[in-house]
Known about the structure:
It is built from eight helices and 16 strands.
Amino acid sequence: MDKICVFCGVKPVKKNKEHVLPQWLLKMTGDPNRKVTFGFNYNSGKQIEFNWQSFTAPSCTDCNERYAKFEGKVKVIVEKLQNREEITGTEALLLLDWLDKVRIGLWINYYYLENNKSQINPRLCIDNRIGKKDRFLQIHFLESKTNSSGLNAFGVETFVFQFNPSCFALRINNVLLFNGSNDFLISKNCGFPYPDKIVSKENGTLELSDWRYDRKKYLEIDNLPLFKGVLTLMQPIQTEMQYESNYYNDSYLVLNCLDRDKRIGNLFRVYNSDIISIDKIEDKLEYESVTGKEITILWQMIAKVYYAQNVFLKRVETNNEIFAKAIKVNEKTIDFYESKNKNFA
Length: 345
């Protein structure tokens, strides 16, 4: 299996290794050399075990160095979340970029770790995926009587994730980041144009039809109700979707785009059960209170990740029978976490 740079997607120049989950994050959450288990190897049936320090992907030396300052900026933001300090809209956009990086990096890492268990031809890399498609982020502060140190990535080991790395969750001590990104995933939520029908073609391209544009906003993501988080963010991005339309001359989109020429929408947030556009991204984003029945335990949130993966994969019409099998595997995982939730209750 030929190795590609996790950043630029070509054969590494001056080969280096990238810690997809950076070393500053490993140190923040415990012993960097600790061993962890990460699902099962579907080929051998054995549990996957490794230490975090060895969890690396191939990269070019220049590419690796290019992202060093970026990681330093994100570290400051994650430290703020650990202290439950409010972040600005600008910092939220940077965090969304970082989660794009981590999500695709983990996807490539598992591609190598399990010897391409899904038999795919990877076309994604970090450079061609950061800030290129609709995305959302939900931040949860996990309630605990003690400071619970630890780092977990949920959903990255599944077949569904290998076919469509659209959704995962990252637990960083007492903070859970629930993140997703895909074509037109939240355009409808933010009142942006979107196709009601997406068909996957044999060559990997998408056929888009039955366009809708009503400028309305919707809380559920593709009929997926979300638990309440302290901060729920959405950003419509249609940069790579080439379709002919005059939509972006419309006044609503003129007012709600960070870059209208590149079809990059504003940052939106859920607040008081409404979706609002964030016009001043340099301002701090007030956290919402989550109390009483709104509080969700960890097992429920994890089950939601696997459920969301299934929902997002089903958005695209395809005749691929393997997708249906992958969804059934996820359904078993959902049952497992929901049973843990019942036992906990």
